[in-house]
Amino acid sequence: MSGNNYKSICFVAMPYGKKTDLATGTEIDFDKIYELAIKPAIEEEGLEPLRGDEELTGGIIHTTMFARLLLSEYVVADLTLSNPNVFYELGIRHAVKPFTTVPIYAKIHPLPFDVDMVRAIGYNLKTNVLSKGAVLSKEAAENLKSELMKRIQQAINGPQANDSPLFELIPKFPAIKLPYEVTYSFRERVSHDKEFHERLDRAKLKPSNQERCMALLEIQEDLVDLKGIQASILLDLMLSFRSVEAWNEMTDLCEAFPDYLKNNIFVRQQWAFSLNRRNKPGDRDKAVSLLTEVMKEYGPDPETLGILGRIHKDRYREAKEKGSIIALAALDESISTYVEGFNSDPRDYYPGINAITLLIEKGDKEALKKAEQLAPLVSFAVARRGGVSSNNYWDLATVLELNCISSDWVSAVNVLPKVLDKAKESWMLKSTLDNLTILKQARICQGHNIEKLQEIIKEFEKCRCDL
């Protein structure tokens, strides 16, 4: 396996074959322009060129075209003919990606006013007066290739610079946020993608997390230069490190990502997640900074605030173990962050269940009353996701936690086997185990019988060792 098999895609939106410019009557061979300048520029920068399909009818873009415009790491768009398809594609791209789009055009007439502000590369064509045909000379091809390579280099190596007029002119223009799960199922699969995932799967079957991590590092080394690798490949590798609790390697990988990927909201959330778990000096401050920037750009959401709440929760636990006076402040900060996360979208139960657990941990009259108020809302949220009938680990784990909170041991014992069966990664079990342990300590302080809860905790500990 070589990193050359997983090059980042540079999608090219342009006319095909010989087309006539209606304004000048000039016939242009766009296939020659692609072969002489565009394709070699992209390839020499270590990317994989991909032209658009010709399956376009009635101005409607084929589904795969949307996938390419949304998910391709880079795009080159030739605006020469003011072709409606190309302009439509450029409009979609500019609405979803602030950078990594490079417009080009033949200087046979100015660009239309609507796109005159974009930073486009102009190229010269040599016109035959008799035939009214226009060709790209050898010198012009080299110039276009050189300019394209410079712009692609800038996009790959950063620092990132907005090339979408929407993101440039409108402060805080809201980009479309595609969840990783959507991109995973929606993106176009390449021929080597299956081989890569099979290798990831084999690495994760090693006997221990240390061996799994070493196997994943070998895969990363084979990718060589990460800046020219498909985003989907890099994201899958990042999540594989997460699955084996390789926090140092996951963090280092995120830091090595190209700028366009570092700016991705999902990457920033996971980067902060791994920084908090690694917890070297300065890691948590950096994690908080990453999440704060995400909220400044996109507003509060359950995932971002859930990770931020976890950071404050870990700070609380460490301060409590040391007997530090700041423990209560960290606990209050974690509770308020989780509550804010749940309130930002009450359909997402994750921050809500964590808020309830910590409110019970705090244990005063006001906190317990708030926990009692939140419990039915969180129960409703997880029930909407299928509750005990779900096949998702987090849905089931939340049902279990709610049962333990309400001391419904019959329901807890019934759902426990399904929870453990759906746990595929040890860090997932640890997250639930942490909450159950917090609940156990709180119940001890409040004089409750913890026998049933302790039995459930032991099953989690046993299952985690097996993974």
Automatic annotation (TrEMBL):
Residues 86-456 form the MAP3K TRAFs-binding domain. InterPro entries: MAP3K_TRAF-bd. This is MAP3K TRAFs-binding domain-containing protein. The lineage of its organism: Archaea, Methanobacteriati, Methanobacteriota, Stenosarchaea group, Methanomicrobia.
